[in-house]
Amino acid sequence: MAGRLDGKVAIITGAGTGVGRACMERFAEEGAKVLGAGRTLATLEESLSHVPSGMGAIHVADLSKDESADAVVAAAIAAFGKVDILVHAAGVGYSWAEKSPGSMNDTVNTAPDKWREVIGINLDGYYLMARAVLPKMIAAGGGAIVGVTSISGLLGLSAAHAYTAAKAGMINLTRSLCVSYAKDNIRANCIAPGFIDTPMVASVVGIFDDPVVADQLAPMRRPGTPVEMANGCLYLASDEASYCNGSVLVIDGGTSARQ
């Protein structure tokens, strides 16, 4: 079924890799013009190369910075004239510990600066993007916001406490956006992925080669793919999800069913 987003303009954050890149591709396939935002020009350019000519644009931004979100929204409007959809896939996960040691530890072993770092990237960025895009959506008569969270925001874990707190915060912010802006014809939903085969977990994805471990990680015994996550975002952003608001769509191959 093609054309589900014909005439729409979507901002996709975290668009340089993984779920964000897959969202750029899938949304463009379904007729949307897409503005991809992220930290690294080279990866954004690679994502843009998978989008039909004239259907995409990119903007380099550190979305943990207050001013960056406004600049992303302005870039989308300059390129395509409006914003109908925000998919916030930007964030860091377990692989961030390689660049920032100590950022994915438990509470006692997470220094305050590491806590603020992860919260700033994962939660503050979502708040800032929503804050920047909502006035445009309200003025236009509606829109759709989709946050890419994690089942780690629904479960207690022994490590990565800043990460789990940020993802839980994203989930409840999504619900609060629903409550506040439904009257403005704005829907806010999120997906909660499980173990997804992205660069964020590339160093450990081989653990699925062990069938016993694979079964413990997910009853489907494999990681999910970025495209499977993008399909969930696409559904929530489309008119097919017209009565979905404040929803958390878990896409985890059954991992959380055992909790």
What does this structure look like?
This protein is an alpha/beta fold. It has a single domain, classed as Rossmann fold, CATH 3.40.50. The protein is 42% helix and 15% strand. Strands 3-2-1-4-5-6-7 form a seven-stranded parallel beta sheet, sandwiched between helices. Helix 6 links the parallel strand 5 and strand 6. Helix 1 crosses helix 8, helix 3 runs parallel beside helix 5 and helix 5 packs parallel to helix 6. The longest helix has 29 residues. The protein is globular and about 50 Å long. It starts with 8 loop residues before the first strand and ends in an 8-residue tail after the last strand. The relative contact order is 0.15.
Note the main attributes of this structure:
single chain; alpha/beta; seven-stranded parallel sheet; 8 helices; 7 strands; 42% helix; globular
Summarize the structure.
The protein is of the alpha/beta class.
First-residue to last-residue Cα separation: 35 Å
Strand content: 5-15%
CATH architecture: 3-Layer(aba) Sandwich
Task: Characterize the quaternary organization of these chains.
Answer: single chain
Parts with pLDDT < 50 across at least 5 consecutive residues: none
Cα Rg = 17 Å
- Characterize the largest beta sheet: strand count, sense, and whether it forms a barrel: 7 strands, parallel
Gross morphology: globular
| Sheet with most strands: strand arrangement | 3-2-1-4-5-6-7
The total of helices stands at 8
| CATH class placement | Alpha Beta
Count of DSSP strands: 7
Family: Belongs to the short-chain dehydrogenases/reductases (SDR) family.
EC number: 1.1.1.-
GO molecular function: oxidoreductase activity
Enzyme class: oxidoreductase
